[in-house]
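In keeping with the milestone schedule agreed at the kick-off meeting, the structural modelling team has produced records for the first pair of proteins. Each record is given below as a sequence line and a structure-token line. The laboratory manager (R.T.) confirmed that both were archived under the project's standard naming scheme.
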Amino acid sequence: MNLTFLGTGTSTGVPQLRCTCEVCTSPDPRDNRLRCSALLQTEDGAPALLLDCGPDFRQQMLRENCPDLAAVLLTHSHYDHVGGIDDLRPYTHTYPGEHFPVYCSADVAQDLRDRVPYCFRENPYPGVPQFDLRIKKAGDEFDIDLGSGFRPAHVRMLGILHGKLPILGFRIGPMAYITDASEIPDDTLQRIEGVDTLVINALRHEYHPSHQNLSRALDVINLTKPRKAYLIHMSHQIGLHEIADSNLPENVTLAYDGLKVRINNND
């Protein structure tokens, strides 16, 4: 499996507008963070799964030379995770007569219908993106067809709390992807225990009411014992990448935009 971090920043991105802190003015490209999203390719040559589709999606995909996509999985409908949904239009017309698969919870599906209603009209304007909303909930398991010659991707939806909002994470083979969590229920902790690779949010060092801070993220990592963990959804308050990453445990890495990871597919 191949994982590419398209964006690793929080909702404001880094640099944050009108901020002159040492992180926002850092010359280190690892301190420049677009909004959170990732690509997961389960087999070499297979189309990738897109994990969230934020407002920087177009820029991120151009950087990666516009790889093929099989579907998008959405954690929740906050703008920094779905703001690029209209830019999926080149992928929604790859196969005539077919709509692009979007896996999400029922509330996210309704938000998308409200936000981009022109995509769901009975007689849509020519060229608008068209989506096949496939409603899933925490605990669901299902396969995503990746096309002829490739094994389907098996996905398990994970229940997460983002403040008071229930959202989704994903367990896909030996990889678990969790973002925007403030609390992770016990059943989800059990489902991710012992994964090869855990991707998990760590906003900053200080407490935040709707996002894990670094200390809480490290607690979850210690409890679930992945072989390797990558931290995402970070604000400028996490500190300079070079310093913050050097202070982490050996099996924990501060992810950065463009980082590519090979995952042991032994699930």
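The second protein of the pair:
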Amino acid sequence: MKNYHVGILGCGQIAQIMHLPYLHDMPGWTVHSLCDISAEVVQKVAQKYHVPEANCYTDYDRFLEDQALDVVLICSKDHCEPAVKAAKAGKHIFVEKPFGFNLAQAEQMAEAADGAGVKMMVGYMKRYDPGFEECLRRIQGKEISLARFHDFGGSFAHTRTVYDVLSGSDVAPEVFQSGKQAIDQAMLRQLGEGRERLFPAYRLLLGVFCHDSILLRHMFGEDLEVLFADACGGFTTAVLRAGNTRIVLESGLVMTRAIWDEHIEIYAPEENLRLDFPWPYQKNAPARLTVSDSVPNTGITRESVITASLEEAYRREWAHFHSCISEDKEPLTSGRDAVNDIRLMSRIMDAVR
């Protein structure tokens, strides 16, 4: 198996909790370099993963100059400029969600990767969940009456009681505030002037519900008609149509409680399917697929709970990315595919009156 050197931009929670442990343990990858605006964080993470001091950066441009670097993992807050620069530097790119804060950013990133001939994959790990793949297999060729995509999240404050997340105190608050303002401006360019009230709902669609919009599109295709959409605070409700199938989308966030309620329900004449996802940082916890049907020739109803596999979705997505680079294949969750995610969320927001 060919080995690729990975550099991580943004050494915060998602990098430390999920990506770095798998990259460190999996064959085919070497954690080669680190870059973050916090020198303290870079130093602490480098010590934990034995990254040489010479491969630690706070300057992204210098980070990209390393000729030994094959792949850039982008876990920073803003992904557009880093992804475009990485593509121009000839690096393959794994970019975390959201894939841009507006459609123009998403298209710019996808075009940069296409133009440079590098692989770009977006970290929609639930697309690689064995439970989802089993659910997807079961609905092929079936007439679906109704599908419901529900993502109700809560506070992640308990994360630091579960995991030892390394942090620093050397970045001025003004830096974070400036970054937030830039993100708000990018979102406003998509929403339109005077629609700032939609920030909470749009931000949640981009950052949380994108886990499900990718699954929705890969189940029902891109020919989706938005029939209705409404948003109040951080909550969004929408009704879509794909052929004869109605799709209900529910997205919400309550920061006062540590809650995670994410599931998909599929209603078909032969059987109903419900796929329940665990908290995203809960390792090796499989998605649970519940099948409701009838015992043949009896009229007796039954429920069966299926665990498709205990394979970790994060590990599976990195294995997929490795094969895409080494075998010159397009990732299932490519940058070009992710453009359609931002397009769908923008259309939903456009439908809100």
